Task: inverse folding
């Protein structure tokens, strides 16, 4: 399993970024993919997740209305569109996968212990 994030960078508050996660090595069409972030000195926190089979998605309250997670099954890509960025969004953003996710029984949630595979992360820095 391989997950590779890209798209991070330095932006001013109020601007947008789109993160990408390229996935390989598992059955992409029936999995849960999530985005997490970790700011310096803070614990890693869940941001958003999506079920690739039905595209059902979830966003934590801290990003709801500003971030949107989407999937391109043909390309095996998951995206995180981040709008109206705030300095508190500054963190390393990680993509993670749960290939055993059962969409018939559960809704995805970005809880770390549920995701077995992780990417290396991409830095997002938002200046005020």
Result:
């Amino acid at each position: 399993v391989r997950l590779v994030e890209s798209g991070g960078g330095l932006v001013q508050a109020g601007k947008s970024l789109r993160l990408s996660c390229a996935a390989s090595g598992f059955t992409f069409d029936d999995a849960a993919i999530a985005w997490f972030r970790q700011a310096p000195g803070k614990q890693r926190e869940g941001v958003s997740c999506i079920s690739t089979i039905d595209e059902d998605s979830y966003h934590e309250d801290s990003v709801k209305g500003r971030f949107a997670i989407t999937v391109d099954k043909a390309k095996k890509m998951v995206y995180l569109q981040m709008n109206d960025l705030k300095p508190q969004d500054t963190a390393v953003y990680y993509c993670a996968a749960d290939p055993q996710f059962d969409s018939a029984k559960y809704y995805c949630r970005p809880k770390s212990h549920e995701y077995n595979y992780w990417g290396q992360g991409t830095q997002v820095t938002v200046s005020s």
About this structure: The radius of gyration is 14 Å.
